[in-house]
User: Fold these one by one.
Assistant:
Number 1:
Amino acid sequence: MFARISGFFYFYFSIIGVYVIFLPKILQTLGYTSAQIGLVFAVAPLTRFIVPFFFQKWFSLTQTVFYVALGSALLSALLFYVTIPYVWFFLVPNVFLGGALGLILPFIETYSLEFLGKERFGKARLFGSVGFMVVGIVLAMLLNDPYMGLHFFLAAVTLMICFGLLVTRKNAHFTTLSSVHGGSIDLKSQLGFWVSLFLMQVSFGAFYNFFTIYQTDHGVSLTITSWMWAFGVICEVGLFYFQGPILKRYGLLGLVQFSTLMTAMRWLLLFLFPGSIAIAFFSQAFHAFSFALHHTAAFSYLHTVYANRRLAAQFYYGFSFGLGGFIGALIAGWMYGPYVYLVSALIAFLGFLTCRFLSR
């Protein structure tokens, strides 16, 4: 099962690699403006934010819903081919994709953390980072026309579906809902924590949607930029592998605060030294804290607070990568320019203060 879970993570985050590293550049090549790129990358996170509220009231994240989400992801990948030349039509498959991904990852990731434990979870999750890195390196060498990126995207979606089926088919865990999956989510009891998650991902809007464009606009080649992405992932993988003792020794909420503060420093470096290859690589090393450590600590903290872990996971992705990603993409698209990473640094620092002084 460890291999199946690892394979799922590998291809799921290969999808994310194509989406965040290359799709912004592809859209720019096709004539999209910065505001239009920001709009495109805002609709999927917005959908991820909205979906959990339906599951809070009316639905449960069951195996059947998971399979519907897999089918929606495949439909989205196919629709990319025919809608990408048209901004408004291209929003439609991005809406489907956001909803699908907002269901798929919490379903598998909640099971993975319960089945593997937080120490082994990081070792399985690092394969997602490897998939993200590999697609970033390989596609940078092959991206000679926009549709090559779409081919990679479709292939990754298809293989993710295969491993998703391998993990869930004939698995008793997914056919019987245990008591830990019951109950609603009281967001007010951890308001400072939720606000911090939101602000953290708002700050990432400039990175996920415009880092490639930012570097190439400052004279850095697409190949070197792809290696910057890869280096960040290498650092992330290292921390995923060795973070077990850290998670045992230090408080989870304190680790969330620390990683948020490191993220603010990361964006500040990009603002202060635009076009510096050395500083950009150095700032990418901070990805070990701002993604690997932050994600595992925050996700594990939710498991200690809420009984309904699947729903808590949905809200985690909804508030952070969903609502935070939506607002972050819009802000980055509207104000892309020399001060975009200064604003990101300030937002991340506000997230640190919120988590530090308003969390219980």
Note: The mean pLDDT is 83.
Number 2:
Amino acid sequence: MGQFSEVVGPRSSGRTSLLMAMLAVTTAKGGLAALVDTFDMADVASMAAAGVRLDRLLWVRGESSTSAFPPLTNGRRQPGADRALARALKAANLILQSGAMSLVALDVADAPLQALRRVPITTWLRLQKVVEGQSTAAVIVGSVPMSRSAGGVTLGLRQLGARGLAPGAGGIESEARIQRARLVPGMGAPVRLTAAALVA
């Protein structure tokens, strides 16, 4: 609580399943959760199937990926992605300032790396400062590490494949490894996760 942590990994690594599980656990316990969905990629049916109580969720929908990533011409950068990121970061800041949520999740998983690199470090530091001392848990979901509090963790995910899973187990098996954290020695050992286990 009161810290920013990260869940990072490539597409199909289990990051969305883990995010849905966190939202489900928070809302099932009666807490309020907020999802800042930068590129409007979340699916209501999938959230409900994962056990997220939608009546306990504030879903801030960003720009669709179509408008955020217009076709590039003459080597120009994609200003839509920068705009969508800026709006999502402002929304996350306002929600964190309210102090009303048990969990605030900022999903930037589909953001281009170049756009993420253009986010000033002061923006991340400001978000970290806002959450300090609160009972709110804050998490950023992305493809690479971006920002975390000194007491937060960076949880790296990678897909191991679908071997040996029982039918209906979700189809993926992932490994989670704490990449950066203030932890005692030996706490960085990998943990295997399945989509079914995450939402149990």
Note: Residues 63 and 84 are 6 Å apart (CA to CA).
Number 3:
Amino acid sequence: MPEADISRLYDYSPNYLADILRKTQTIAMVGASPDKTKFSYGVLRVLHETGYDMIPVNPRPEVSEIRELKVYRSLEEIDRPVDMVEVFRPKEELFGIAQQAIGIGAKVLWGQIGVYDDKAARLAEAAGLEVVMDRCPKIELFRPFWKPRLDLGI
């Protein structure tokens, strides 16, 4: 994708996204923040409360826990299998994170809204990972429940 074409929409079928979210149990969130005002904190909170085993990844040594969950400095430091690597980092870092996700045997690489890189997607897919980019799992998790209410007055 040419860099100038940042408006490209990554289009995934609802079944593809639902299948990933259904079979995923453990999510390593790269770029997790302890700051309750940050979007990554809110997504981590909702996914954790929904029942996912969340693994926050943040390289800052002063961050040891987020929501009473142990924080890991890197994907390589995680001591258990990871189903999904969710990325809350600049898109320029996605290729390197894709390499790390492959290295730890993750099954899914998921780039948050605004996080996309076709080269990273191709690399991950070639290694057998499912890939989602420029989407939020919290939004996709609840999308089936969004029903229009056409009977409401204006």
Note: The helical segments are 14-23, 39-50, 94-103, 118-126, 137-142.
